[in-house]
Amino acid sequence: MYQLHKLRWQEKAILVGVKLPQVNRFAAEDSLAELSLLAKTAGAEVLESIIQDRKKIDAGLFIGKGKVEQIKQLCLDRGANLVIFDDDLSPGQIFNLEKILDLKVIDRSCLVLDIFAKRAKTAEAKIQVELAQLQYLLPRLTRGWLHLSRQWGGIGTKGPGETQLEVDRRVIKKKIGDLKGKLVKIDKERQTQRKKREDFFKVALVGYTNVGKSTLFNQLTKATVPVEEKLFSTLDSFTRILRFSRNHNILLTDTVGFIRKLPHHLVASFRSTLDEVKLADLLLHIVDISHPNFPQQMEKVSQILKELDCSSKPTLLVFNKIDKLKGDLPLGLCPSYENEPIFISAEKGIGLANLIASLELFMDEQSCEAEVFLKKEDLNLLPSFYKLGIVTQTEMKDEGLNLKIRAKKWNLEKLKGLANGEDFA
Ligand code: GDP
Ligand code: MG
After folding, report:
1. Most CB contacts within 10 A, which of 122, 351, 418, 421?
2. Of 118, 133, 148, which residue constitutes the final position of a domain?
3. Which residues face 373 on adjacent strands?
4. How many domains does the chain have?
5. CB 183, CB 269: distance < 8 Å
6. Can you say whether residue 261 is alpha, beta or left, with left for phi > 0 and alpha for psi between -120 and 50 degrees?
7. Is 209's C-beta closer than 6 angstroms to any atom of ligand 1?
């Protein structure tokens, strides 16, 4: 089977980006800085980053011939053994570039897929990444690519004839079909689980990659008592039920980070994970306020939320990593926001009590209290009331039970229906 390039520890890389006339310099540099972070995450050492100004992309080499020669010399001088391009390359471009440079060339998508493959922990995530990898690979299965695969040791001993290529394409297509089938099945299971979780107050952590979402997730899990773990034993590892206090239980979900130029296939196959964002009652938008480009990252996140139809969802803005700040808060650069932001350091555990208090306040605002009378013959409905809300008071009368209950607004509607049109105060 063919394999995408897997970065090994201590590969020495040169990064290459192109600045086209319609892109501003800042965005081009920022994108390359992010590529550098990605390369380091994958275990490579970044020796240098190069940006070439171009009117348009070169069809054969992506960048100019002279620039390629210059990079070749640089690689020799610095002892690089890998060149990573910030944009997707065609198989032909990779083939041509490798021929001149005489070393491995990969593109951003390939790098990101490599990182996701290493990070994928749950069965679902592994299938999602493998699917994205094969979809990335399929159109690239050409003679040029085979040449590369052989160089990377990804191919068998036989010469790569066209027939062999055709066979391999068929195998990969079949595998893609199988993986998609598996995902559909997992998605169905998810739907069932979601039904079980309907009654919870759902909070999703969103934000740019590396801002500290998972650190916060772990801290909050530690800081609170995870309840009823068993009930959701099949839940994926990135969702936990947290109990802040008797009246405040939430279902917290960690999500994949958003980055720019996320490979298209990866977004598509992670759609069901991103659905968790759509179903949340509240989003916590985590921002790394110590990052020099945090306003741009916030914009990018807002843009993706818009694409997911989630821009009108209630959102609390959380500025993380305040422990790294020196001097004043750099809020002058910040895009406008609706609610007062909360400042924390997830790693040092600063401001978490404040964050939890804001969450509780939000939940209280979202829920309301009602009084309901359950007739004796309807007392079998009582468990639903305890399940969907918090029963704060009960009073037994001759004809039935008087209840005071606090719950999410739409759960109250549901109970209203249950209690046969009883009036809720
Ligand atoms: P995610 O990609 O948003 O899930 O980010 P992670 O939780 O994986 O954190 C990314 C990096 O930021 C890790 O190296 C964390 O140790 C670091 N980090 C997270 N929170 C803080 C913080 O409050 N202060 C500092 N200094 N570093 C943090
Ligand atoms: Mg994370």
Report:
1. 351
2. 118
3. 402
4. 3
5. yes
6. left
7. yes
Same domain, 111 and 241: no
| CA 212 to ligand 1 centroid distance, Å | 4
Tell me: do 301 and 407 sit in the same domain. Answer: no
Give the mutation target among 210, 213, 259, 294 for probing the ligand 1 site: most ligand atoms within 8 A of CB: 210
Dump strand ranges (E) for 22-102.
44-53, 82-85
The protein residue whose alpha carbon is closest to atom 15 in ligand 1 is 212
Listed in sequence order, the residues at least 6 apart from 324 whose beta carbon sits closer than 8 Å to its beta carbon are 290, 345
- Give residue 256's pLDDT band: very low, low, confident or very high (50, 70, 90): low
Of the pLDDT bands very low, low, confident and very high (cuts 50, 70, 90), residue 246 is low
Q: Which of 43, 34, 44 is nearest to 14 (CA)?
A: 44
Supply 79's token pair: 């002892």
Paired sense of beta strands 367-375 and 342-343, if any: unpaired
Q: Are 210 and 294 in the same domain?
A: yes
Rounded to 10 degrees, the C-alpha dihedral 291/278/302/180 comes to 80
Q: What is the pTM for the complete model shown? A: 0.69
Span 208-218, pLDDT tens digits: 888 988 889 88
Residue 43 belongs to domain spanning: 10-118
Find, among 104, 134, 105, 103, the residue nearest to 117 by Cα.
134
Spatial distance between the Cα atoms of 210 and 213, rounded to a whole number of angstroms: 7
Compute, in angstroms, the gap from residue 23 CA to the centroid of ligand 1. 30
